[in-house]
User: What shape does this take?
Amino acid sequence: MPTSQTKPVATELAVTGMTCASCVARVEKTLKRLPGVEDAAVNLATNKASIRFHPEQIRLRQLVDAVREIGYDAPLTTSTFQVSGLEMTQDPQPLQRAVASLPGVASAQLNLASGELRVEHTGNLRSEIIRIVEQRGFQVAERGAPETDPAAHEHAHDYADAETSRLRTRFWVALAASAVVMFFSMLLQASLPRMAGATLSDPLMKWMSPLSHALLQALGGAPLWTPGLLRWLLLLLTLPVVGWAGRHFYVRAWKAFRHHAADMNTLIAVGTAAAFLFSLISTLAPTLFTHHGLAADVYYEAVDWIIALILLGNWMESRARRQTAGAIRSLIKLQSRTAHLLRDGQESEVPVDALQPGDLVRIRPGERIPADGLVREGASSVDESMLTGESMPVEKQPGAELIGGTVNGNGGLVAELRRVGEQTTLAQIVRLVEQAQGSKAPVQRLADRVAGVFVPVVISLAIATFAIWFDFGPSPHLLWAFLTGVTVLVIACPCAMGLAVPTAVMVGTGQGARQGVLIRGGEALEKLQAVRTIVLDKTGTITAGRPEVTDLLPTQASSEPELLATAASLEAHSEHPLGQAIVRAAQSRGLPLAEIDGFTAIPGKGIHGQSRGTAETLLVGSDAYIASAFPEASNARTAAATTLAQWASQGKTIVGAARGTRLLGWLAVADPIKPGSADAIRSLRHLGLRLVMLTGDAPATAQAIASQLGIEEVRAGVLPAGKADEVRRLQQQGLSVAMVGDGINDAPALAQADVGVAIGTGTDVAMEASDVTLVRGDLRALLRAILLSRRTMRIIRQNLFWAFGYNVIGIPIAAGLLYPAFHILLSPVLASAAMAFSSVSVVSNSLRLRHTGGDERFAGQSQLRARTTA
Assistant: This one.
């Protein structure tokens, strides 16, 4: 039992997989054993666990993990929110921790670049989550509609547009006020008798001093524009800037302070508030300064310009960050709003939300395909470039697959829908890209650690700067100390560190999606650029994955029709590509297929079953498997050896078949190399990558394919379980390995590899089992993915260098490092301009990833050089 005296919290956790009272007892026992759990009661009828626990000792995620570790599942609800007002937030962790502290919240992930807050929780906690976020000074809108609903995404983007519009309006108001304040500050500059060394005025104001005197004389001279009147005018003009345009800086800083936190808003609020309060005292009680021989300076123009320039930076940053999410918006716009439904002989226009699997829809020329399905009538070409990166239209005939969101060409089609709503390929791609853009790359850890302590360190440096200038600076000590302290606060910018990685990840993954490359997140990007060895599965990756029967060799005890029909009867129950080729060959000849009972598959060897009616055992499998099953047929095998060897040398796969006690013969099946594989492999080799082909085929078959492609390393005869072992063996040599495959058999190897790359089929995209998915099964997309990952990491390193370098250089200059030798001192206004544009520069640098022409040209040059050197 826990010893904590705090009050426990209660939550309900859904538990699935329980079937009896023993399951209930096991779950209860596991939960009660956890430190911090006071009580747990599990109900089998409702499949829920009611838990009372102390959140300071154990988190909800640990409860979920404990349930999952014993073989059950505890599904959670994922809610997504759009948070605005993050311009000055450099560290997402305080808000994440606040949301995660709610009972029933398992995890909270905030993406500073996109403003997306993704929360895993139990029950309906959306209103509580919104309340917590708003308490910390941010605005939040729930994105509760399905992720494929264009209206939901448009609502979220409209919310972000409104935030950008608000920043623009606030900036223009602050700019207008700053311009007027600058004018009156010039008059004040000219109207005051200057005391030697006693001014804190901005260098720009000093440079404009002659103009100030000219304006003062033109407007009636000092008797009319007294210093007291000018100070009050400046105060009145500054109040709207501080109280409205920049109000959110102070509100957020105060809320952060109440929760024992500090962020960028704290630095701005403290710096400008100090300058404003100093100026306010000079306005209300100027004699406090003049009696001590000091000028009653006011720095309203510094306050106004600091706020105006920071608002300008926020506005520009907001616009740029919106552009980083352009890929998601582009994908969402691909979704059709309506479809032409065919039902009971009638055609009607319905919303896509009303579509169901099995519905028939008419797709007119030029229309977007509303959902995934199959062509039933008509013929046309379809532009799939927006999803697959394939520039050439794809011809569609009856039976061909259609991807929702792609554009029909000149022909009319009738399609039967297979996947609708969140199950479509487009919805999966959107979901994957959003998750990827919300992920963190390992390289971001350093920035996160620095950002976590940045503001307290800067405040400490500002205090130290003030003290040093007060003790050792020129006279008047207080004014110079005040100037440098405020400048240090204003110039510091942790925002750039917070945006350096996520913005690049957002743009990089979005650009990949446009090119038919789906990257699961920042970690996958970082690992992919470090890969130096690529393991390629042959079937479906290098080759088309749709083999054809090319040759038949029956024994004397059989015939071609019997051989093909027997093999096809068994293969009709298999999903293996070679088996489907045999079935298609039998169907094309019109051969009848036998009904099979007791179908059994032996991975890597073959299949067998009983023919219904005759009860004869049918066997189909590799040549070695058939030879071991029929050792008495060695004479037939010897007679066929020359032909079989010739097939193997041509890269054809040999399949044997038997019926009862009779060996029927062999079939040759060839899987053609994909059109783009040769160019892609040459270019990958030119990049210096080590290529290894992995296949379960016989060595001769594998070597024949490898020889055509120039692949020197081949691992043939590898069983499915052995693929992961081969990857592990390469990793033990200290190599970073990427595994490229397309089948379920490749899943263990994909998981074992440093980077798993799945070859998609256009509609059946194996996203969950891989780090990278190539939507269209073309290895040239792998080349694009590697080039994109390398360029993204290069941009990330540039961003981090700029973000750290700016602060490392800027803060010492603001503190007056150059003053003793060069008498150069940075003004608060110039410091605010530098700070405002530092984060904008990082985001703008990330946006360069949207223009991948250089990489594409490099890829093309690589292919050309590879051809000339091959």
User: Anything to note?
Assistant: The chain has a mean pLDDT of 79. The two ends are 71 Å apart (CA to CA).
